[in-house]
Amino acid sequence: MSIKRKDFLGLYNTDREEIVSILNTAESMKEIFTRTVKKVPTLRGKTIVNLFFEPSTRTKSSFSLAAKRLSADVMSVSKKMSSVQKGESLLDTAKTMEAMGADVVVVRHGSPGAVEFLAEQLSARVLNAGDGAHAHPTQALLDLYTIKENLGQIEGLKILIVGDITHSRVARSNIWGLNHLGAEVRVVGPNTLLPVEIEKMGVEKYTDLDQALSDVDVINILRIQLERQKSGLFPSINEYIKFYGFHEERLMQVDDEVLIMHPGPMNRGIEIDSEVADGKQSVITEQVTNGVAVRMALLYLLAGGNPEDAEIT
Ligand code: CP
Prior knowledge:
The chain has helices spanning 16-32, 58-69, 90-99, 114-121, 137-151, 169-180, 209-212, 227-230, 237-244, 248-251, 274-277, 284-303, 307-310, and strands at 47-52, 73-78, 104-109, 125-131, 158-162, 184-188, 203-206, 218-221, 259-261. The protein is of the alpha/beta class. The strands form two sheets. A five-stranded parallel β-sheet has the order 7-6-5-8-9. Strands 2-1-3-4 form a four-stranded parallel β-sheet, sandwiched between helices.
């Protein structure tokens, strides 16, 4: 089993068959979590580098843990603690890690296209861990996995993504992935946070949350990037909470089976209240767990480990 391309940059150029294959591999990886020793020798001798030029809690730790569970050697470089502070370029930093024998370089960067640029320049395989507002494919894959695990399928489901769609790599990647798998995708938010012609991505656009909630199966609530309020894209946090915030009362409008998702980090009390985030419909912590399985699957498929070593069925 392997992936069709050298690098894994986004779901925009990944077809349905590849997505299904990654999700199936992730399912086998998740079985490893139930063992006493949660580690297999699949990527023994391979080197994975985490190159993070933007803050991250979930994605960075998840990639590190995924690589360790597959027995790879793992190195991490962050912008703040590296020679980037002394003026070294992104490319020189990446090439330095490649020279130490990196097989896969996992990159997060604030600029859209930075990961694609590195993929063109490096012989090592490159995996996108989030680039600007462009793409965050592993987040979307773990979201797809979590939906399928809880609801048994993705095709035909109505998925609502709420909030700042314009600046969200999570929204864009989810839309690509969900469309490939046959879901009906809706987006809702203030007009100023919805991209012009977003419908061309194959989604239904709403500004009224009550209308958008009708008959949904999954609600994926995005983090409000608080700096957007300062730049005038919505008048006040209180107004956002009133029209788009998820509190217990809002949840009464939907069925008890509707899944509540959030990619994290959460602004509790703004886009989501604690009663909703920690409530029985929330699968937010499951998303985090599944993130490790999905990243194990991708590292395995990209780094070309020995399937016999995988001890996965
Ligand atoms: N969801 C997500 O990408 O979180 P981090 O920024 O903590 O990695």
